[in-house]
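From the shared-data thread, chain only:
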Amino acid sequence: MRKNLVRLPYFRFIIGAYVLISPLSKEALTIRRNFLTIGVMRKHSFLSIINMPALLWWLSTIGLGVILIVTPVSYADAQGNQYSRQYASIIQQIFDFIQNHYVDEVDPQELYEGAMNGMFGALGDQHSVFLPARDMMDLSDTTSGNFGGVGLYISKPVEERNGNPPYVEVAAPMEDTPGWRAGINPGDLIIKINNEPTDTLTMDEVLDRLRGEPGTTVTVLIRRGTSIEFPVSITRAIIEVPTAKYAMIGSVGYLKLLTFTPMTAQRAKEAITYFNSHNCTGFILDVRNNYGGLLNAAVDVCDLFLDGGVVVSTKSRLPSENRVFYAKKNTAVPDDMPVIVLINNASASASEIVAGALKDRGRAYLVGVTSYGKGSVQQVFPIQGKQDGFKITVARYYTPSDVNIDGSGIPPDKEVPVPEFTENDMESLKALIEANEIPAYVKEHPNLSSAEINAYAARLGAKYSLNAELLRLLIRNEQIRTAIAPAYDLEYDVQLQEAVNILNGGSYKRLMQGTKTLKQLQDEAEKEGMTAAS
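Structure, as tokens:
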């Protein structure tokens, strides 16, 4: 087994490249000179998805807009490089030495995965990662469209950060799934799963424990903030990948895109047909909390609004990765139809491609808060002869005005923040959560009216010294979790309220005249920075 493994050309390149680019390459050369024994690298995991295939998060990170490649990888160019061959030879020798002389028997797979993880970790790019067989297998779940689970996107650090144990963190719950209905929020930490601490578990082990047969129950201990901890029991179910919801708000068509899949553009077309049949006079495209999806899906959605022209471009050091994506002629949404795009700090990647394209092309007015800021492109490659693969950043994408928003995000034309609890509220909020008052009350009163919610929020506010308006949102969210979530909730959604007011109030054209492209905003910011520095 050892001889077969080390003779594989892709393995030699992998190991060689690891030493070539690793921050520890100097130490590696010392090892070559002294031929010292090195220890076994430990397996570790990367950002993954619970009960949504691990690769969906990665595929949706255009990072969230990934181009999936399923052809075998060629390493001819790398192996043709003199230094690559040299390092490959060195590491193959060390690999053999460890196998023959290390004090304990070593699993070649362990060394292989450790080297792979080390190589991609040395890039310093959280979006370029080794994908072990388990995560590559999850791709099948993605393409099948349904699977058993709880419906949470999660991540897990490999080791302690700033003294904090590497617990599982919830990136986001999927709407209308058991995890979402259970009230789990983005940013929550999963401390235990069925009383087993998660800081010592690998991501694969976390996945194994959270997944299971539909109808079975798993109990997790949630930590919210710095001090609030409470158990949550979740009944597993079949999870289907959602992509869109739509409805009319008076004469305004409202389309909420949850993610970008091969079906997203088709679902958007169905929504547009529905809006047209109801004499739609304005259009709201909601990509809040949309972490992204497939690049082509984002381009196809833009094609519904743009009459030709650039949607997005990708740039790389490799000419083959430099591409420009154009919209087709003619649109599904009339050119004179007012369009507003809702964004927030969880709108990422493919969502930002759509928002950036419609903003730069002067086709939409953006409302909400600055988006996440994910502006790189990944490709996923299987490794020839194995079930493993890897995802690697190959380019960065640029909006039509030639701006890369990685790390900065897209600012809205009209900022509408959502009120939040403060740090001073944490103790009172902890007491409220531990008392389980809101879930118990809503369970006893499932059909609360708006007036009844307001009255209950006022009583809770007085009891816990918390903002009654924020308590209204908590009560309403709990109420929604007990039923199928509506397409929109105008009474409790301040950002949606603002969008509707703009469309119905007749100010859209005037506001659009004052908008600027991302390039103009970038140039103004740089000019202001230079002025301040001088």
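The longest helix spans residues 82-101.
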